[in-house]
Amino acid sequence: MEGRGIPRTLGRLREAYGIDVELLSDDGETELFRILAEYRLNDSVYAALQSAAMRKEDEVAFFRVLEQDDGRLELESIEDEDEWETAAEGYDELLFESGGDR
Questions:
Q1: 47-93 per-position pLDDT tens digit
Q2: For residue 63, is it within any domain?
Q3: Is the pTM higher than 0.70?
Q4: How confident is the model at residue 2, as a pLDDT?
Q5: Would 64 be classed as within a structural domain?
Q6: How far is CA 90 from its chain centroid?
Q7: Does residue 3 belong to any structural domain of this protein?
Q8: What is the per-residue pLDDT across 2-43, written as a single tens digit (0 to 9) for each?
């Protein structure tokens, strides 16, 4: 994986879905996730999401954001541990720069 760049905040997911997005789990259940951040890092776009249960445990889920040919945005699970770590570090950097908290 190439060297880490500087994460740049995006807002396309919130423009499309608002502050929350409903995701379908592998078992067919839907769960509501808060969109904490969407950001470009190197050549990829990532989303940091958090369900109510995850918030209690101070956990965050990271997804790759893909744009379909019709302009629709799709969230894809990150299977590669190195890429997941890169996405997490990018999110942490965004939090540090903004001085914010989740």
A1: 999 999 999 999 999 999 999 999 899 999 999 999 999 999 999 99
A2: yes
A3: yes
A4: 47
A5: yes
A6: 10
A7: no
A8: 456 889 999 999 999 999 999 987 788 999 999 999 999 989
Among residues 54, 49, 56, the alpha carbon closest in space to that of 91 is found at 49
Range of the domain at 90: 8-98
Tokens 């997911």 belong to which residue? 13
Distance (Å, whole) CA 22 – CA 45: 19
Residue 100: its pLDDT value, please?
58
99: confidence class by pLDDT, cuts 50, 70, 90: low
Residue 2 lies in a domain: no
Which uninterrupted H or E stretch holds 65?
A: strand 61-67
Decide: residue 62, CB within 10 A, 0-12 exposed, 13-18 middle, 19+ buried.
buried
Instruction: Work out the burial of residue 11: count CB atoms within 10 Å of its CB; fewer than 13 is exposed, 13-18 middle, 19 or more buried.
Output: exposed
Assign 19 to helix, strand or coil.
Answer: coil
Domain count along the chain = 1
Q: What is the dihedral of CA 43, 49, 54, 59, to 10 degrees?
A: 30
